[in-house]
Write a structure and sequence with these properties.
single chain, mainly alpha, 4 helices, 12% strand
């Protein structure tokens, strides 16, 4: 099982509230924020990237964000309700989630089901 490569940098070209970004198999992490919980979150994103290939993941991720902006009219709520993010946040708290991930495309179960308000 290939794992993503984590690269810790003193800065990221993102707003300060973002502490990491996953770009396929590379995860860029803001210095001082690397943790096992973050790594679990980003490993789920790596599984999502592999399932959908690069273009598929990007298109669906951005489409989910745009849809969230239309529905919630809030950057934070739009981001928090992206199905990929919802699956990754849940995985942070579940021991062995990546090992026991039920099936491929699990993120689909997080579409519109109990969306964060």
């Amino acid at each position: 099982m290939m794992l993503p490569v984590f690269i810790v940098l003193p800065w990221l070209p993102l707003p300060r509230r973002f502490i990491a970004i996953s770009l396929a198999c590379l995860v860029f992490v803001r210095k001082g924020h690397d943790s096992e919980r973050l790594r679990l979150h980003e490993r789920v994103h790596w599984e999502q990237w592999k399932e959908l290939w690069i273009v598929g993941f990007l298109v669906l991720y951005l489409a989910s964000f745009v849809r969230g902006m239309i529905v919630y009219r809030s950057l934070d709520k739009a981001y928090l309700n992206i199905p990929f993010e919802r699956e990754a946040r849940e995985a942070e708290l579940l021991v062995g989630y990546q090992i026991n991930r039920r099936k491929r495309f699990c993120w689909r179960e997080y579409r519109d089901r109990g969306a964060s308000q």
